Amino acid sequence: MAGVQFTWTVELSYGTPYLLSLDLSRELTAVVWLAGPLSGLIVQPLIGALSDKCTSRYGKRRPFIVLAGFLTCLSMLGVAYAREIGLFASNLAHGDSSAGHTNAIIVAVASFYFMDFTLNAVQAICRALILDIPPLWQQEYANAWSARMSNSAQVIGYFVGFIDLVKYAPWLGDSQMKGFCVVAIAVFCITLGVTCLTVHEKPLEREDDQEDLPWYHTIVYIWRAFTRLPRPVQTLCNTQFFAWMGWFPFLFYSTQWVSDIYFATHPSDGEGNWTEGTRAGSFALLCYSVVSVIAGVVIPAVAAKYEKAWFLRLDNIYTASHLVVAGALLSAWFVRSVSAATVVLTIMGIPWAIVLWIPFSLVGEYVSFEDERRQQEQIAAATGNSNNDAASASSSASNNTPRVLEDQQQQEDPKDEFDAGMILGVHNMYVVFPQFAVAIIASFIFAATDAATPSDDEVSGVASVLAFGGLMALVAAGFSRFIIRVK
To answer: Which end of the chain is more exposed for a tag (fewer CB within 10 A), N or C?
Structure first.
């Protein structure tokens, strides 16, 4: 997860400036960033479903990590050397460099799309591994470490991107993008290598009826999972939908908000002013990342130490994080200084650490509980115990194994049981859908504020979009009170 997040920082910190440097228009750049939600919507549930049924002797997940990881490295090389590849293709096809610039844009855009799809695949498999390997009692701990590694890699990635790599490490390449991509490939390969070598998977045994399944079985499996999620997972997904309706305005427009406030409070004095405004936004983002690392270490540790305190239960911490997001984003209407805006973004690092930890811990609890339940049923069936004996054994084991809340206990048809990868894939769809919705809603908000405010007031439009995110976070806080946990 650290390697995945470090690689994401290449795209997040340098993607837009790099594409603009290739003379790609801002409108087309926005189209490029549709790769993120599209890949999350398509790849994660598909890879989850395919890996759930993989019977390779190397494990369910490892083959997908290796293949998708290799393709991710190729795509990063395509991004880094888009100009050279475009020029080579032009010379090869036409014997001159007249079409090199156009080819470079095509290579860069295609590489970014390819990287989004393959990196989403690796991320989906890594999250599925976290659900597969640790037992139920370690799920909260494992997901806390996942969040810590991701947040730490994000800070390191932004720092590496901030360093002048051409000056201090010219052997990495003659441009910042080339150097950053080379470093990211090295980090990515090392971290994925450690994962593949140290995580021990139990190969999935092939079932006889799997060979007779139709070609469209995987699509049907995904659709059935999306429409018939187990109730504990569905209640979490409902909350996640509105939570990310709040997070995407922040992720899309927070640095622009800080920069706009800087420009509004500092009369333009040329290029230097715009440089300082951009640095102000970048500094706020760095503060937010550092706080997210600290919160990712402190909050899970405190929650584990005082786990019997009701206010430190995972569901209550999750609700509190939504309220913090709501308060911070709604304050955007009233903030008028760069310092105050930086404080708001810094505070957002706390709920960010929580949103990368608790939802996946809750999913992990459910998946681990279901796995243990299935194992008990298989053992009971194999030993030929009667139904009464099996019920007695299940009751005895309940002292150590969590059980679903009484209002959730219900008999489920075995065909409606879904594996970890599929559940994570559908959960991710509830995270991706808000990205499309926010893009459309934000455009309407900008149009409305442009019509109602002076043309030189750029802050109010962004502040209104952030405030909309705050309102959605309030809705998420309400939905979070209906989350059903196993206990």
So the answer is: C
Judgement on whether residues 165 and 287 belong to the same structural domain of the protein: no
Q: Where do we find the tokens 């308060």? A: 327
Q: 141 lies in which domain range? A: 1-213
279 and 322 assigned to the same domain: yes
Calpha distance 207→485 (Å, rounded): 31
- Average pLDDT estimate for 256-269: 75
Is the pLDDT at 205 greater than 80? The verdict is no
34-38, 380-384, 431-435, 475-479, range with greatest mean pLDDT: 475-479
Average pLDDT of span 257-268? 77
Rank 138-147, 219-228, 232-241 by mean pLDDT and report only the highest: 232-241
The answer on pLDDT for 404 being more than 80 is no
Same domain membership, residue 188 and residue 284: no
pLDDT over 70 at 415, yes or no: no
Answer yes or no: do 258 and 154 share one domain. Answer: no
CA-CA distance, 238 to 481, in Å (whole number)? 11
CA pair distance 345, 87, nearest whole angstrom: 42
Is the same domain home to 196 and 256? no
**CA 181 to chain CA centroid, nearest Å:** 20
The CATH code of the domain that includes 107 is 1.20.1250.20
Strand spans (E) along 277-402: none
77 and 19 part of one domain: yes
Average pLDDT over residues 194-212: 74
Shared domain check, 471 and 329: yes
Residues 6 or more apart whose Cβ sits within 8 Å of residue 119: 4, 7, 8, 39, 68, 72
Does the residue 219 lie in any domain?
Answer: no
Residue type, 323: L
Tokens 């009701």, located at residue: 310
225 is a domain residue: no
Count of CB atoms situated within 10 Å of the CB of 421: 30
* Domain end among 183, 213, 243: 213
d(CA 167, CA 165): 5
Asked if 463 and 270 count as a contact pair (C-beta separation under 8 A), the reply is no
d(CA 59, CA 125): 12
Based on the domain organization, do 261 and 395 belong to the same domain?
A: yes
What letter would DSSP give residue 252?
H
Average pLDDT score over residue span 35-48: 76
As for how many domains the chain has, the answer is: 2
What letters, b where the CB count within 10 A reaches 16 and e where it falls short, cover 180-207? bbbbbbebbeebbeebbeebebeebeee
Asked if residue 233 lies in contact with residue 408, where contact means CB atoms within 8 angstroms, the answer is no
More confident residue, 332 or 377: 332
Residue that is last in its domain, among 156, 179, 213: 213
Q: What is the mean pLDDT of residues 236-252?
A: 91
Per-residue confidence (pLDDT) for residue 402, from 0 to 100: 43
- Look at residue 224 and tell me if it is in a domain: no
